[in-house]
Amino acid sequence: MSSKEKPLIHNKRRNKIRLHHEGKETLLLCGVILAAVIGLSLWLIKVKWVAYLIISIFAVIYVILVNFFRCPIRMFQGPTSKTVVAPADGKIVVIEEVDEQEYFHDRRLMVSIFMNLTNVHANWIPCDGTVVKVEHQNGNFMKAYLPKASTENERSMVVIRTPQGEEVMARQIAGAMARRIVTYAEEGQECFIDDHMGFIKFGSRVDVYLPLGTEICVKLNQKTVGDETVIARLK
CA angle at residue 125 from 124 to 129, to 5 degrees? Predict the structure, then answer.
């Protein structure tokens, strides 16, 4: 599906916020629980400050969930040719050459973005091109910032071939709290910067694998904004 067929992503106003559809069921269920807690606390607990404390705790948890499932509507500003943008909000935790053994079977530059609970967890397509490979693999749920998480945790890879013939992989990785990775990309479809790639529920990270010689445009510990921060420029 091309970006022109996605009204959620295109025909939009910059910086507009909406809730991601992946959170609808969770927020509805938690809203019912919050309403029940409010009603039962006011009815059963005679000490009012205790009732208000319990209500406040559940209300704060619900606000955190709403914040987690927010989905900014963004449009990349600038030329997209040979440009690789951050697929996620978060912080750069790894920039290094690695041996990628699941698809490329050669040396690649890896840029890893770690997302904490306060970050937006929607993921964006990092570059224009055609999706040539999508694969989900089950695995562990160790902390996402650990090096082994990239190859041992539950993960989903999306490989994109750019119009210039380069291949870029984005790997969504589950974390210690994440239990569901959603990937929207499908093999054979055209994809564009601004398209949504998927969603990871709760703490996690996204690794981007680039050809050697790619110009890296970010630094360690730099914060990224998905679909806005340029992380690399291809040769």
Answer: 165
Q: Is residue 207 a contact partner of residue 110, using CB atoms and an 8 Å limit? A: yes
Estimate the crossing angle of helix 48-68 against helix 24-44, to 10 degrees. 180
The contacts of residue 182 (CB under 8 Å, 6+ apart) are 22, 198, 199, 200, 201
Q: For the chain, how are helix, strand and coil distributed in percent, rounded to 5?
A: 20, 35, 40
pTM: 0.76
> Is there a contact between 133 and 103 (Cβ–Cβ < 8 Å)?
yes
State pLDDT tens for residues 159-195. 999 999 999 999 998 865 555 788 999 999 999 999 9
Q: Are 195 and 43 in contact (CB under 8 A)?
A: no
| Biggest CA-to-CA distance, the chain | 70
Burial readout 64-73 (b: 16 or more C-beta within 10 A, e: otherwise): ebeebbebbb
H-helix or E-strand containing 34? helix 24-44
What amino acid positions are annotated as catalytic residues? 204
Where are the strands (E) in 15-154, listed by range? Answer: 16-19, 70-73, 83-85, 90-100, 106-115, 122-124, 129-137
Helix (H), strand (E) at residue 215: strand 215-216
Cα 168 to Cα 161: distance, rounded to the nearest angstrom:
6
CB 85 within 8 A of CB 74: no
Residue 67 has pLDDT above 80, yes or no: no
